[in-house]
Amino acid sequence: MVHPFFGGTEDDEMWLYMCASNDGPQDPRMKPPAEDLARLGCERVLIFVAERDYLCPAGKNYYEELKKSGWKGRVELVEHLDEKHVFYLRNPTCTNALELTNKFISFIKQNNGSPRNSIESKY
């Protein structure tokens, strides 16, 4: 997940259009219950967030909820300090964008048999 957007806020026009009847940020379509997260059908999840992105807390919350859910996989959170939402699209050759790309490539190439653990990185 690169700068994930979970929507569900009261001012999110797309969310309100698609789901006129909803429970806001706690709606299970935007915030799955722990038992659903525990059944996530993969072994690894990599989440990137940017410190100055207003969506950063949502990505961090997803990371924490996934860790607490009982899911047996490996989750990693990478936070890029002093960066805004989708900085890697606005300046794809900056140091942090290149680091993000390399981290993503490395994640894809990893062996799936990794032990369960959680990792947090800040750049």
Characterization of the model:
With 123 residues, the protein is of the alpha/beta class. The chain has helices at residues 13-18, 34-37, 56-68, 87-90, 95-109; strands at 44-50, 74-80, 118-122. Strands 1-2-3 form a three-stranded parallel sheet, with helices on both faces. Strand 1 (44-50), helix 3 (56-68) and strand 2 form a beta-alpha-beta unit. It is globular and about 45 Å long. The mean pLDDT is 86.
CA-atom Rg in angstroms: 15 Å
- Mass-distribution shape: globular
Which structural class matches the secondary elements? alpha/beta
Mean pLDDT: 86
What profile does the largest beta sheet have? Answer: 3 strands, parallel
Please mark out the parts with pLDDT under 50 across 5 or more consecutive residues, or reply none: none
Biggest sheet: strands side by side, in what order? 1-2-3
What is the terminal separation in angstroms?
Answer: 17 Å
> How many DSSP H or I helices?
5
Number of strands: 3
Protein name: Carboxylesterase 2
Descriptive labels:
3-stranded parallel β-sheet, about 120 residues, Carboxylesterase 2, alpha/beta, 5 helices
Q: What's this entry about, in short?
A:
This protein is of the alpha/beta class and 123 residues long. The chain has 5 helices and 3 strands. This is Carboxylesterase 2.
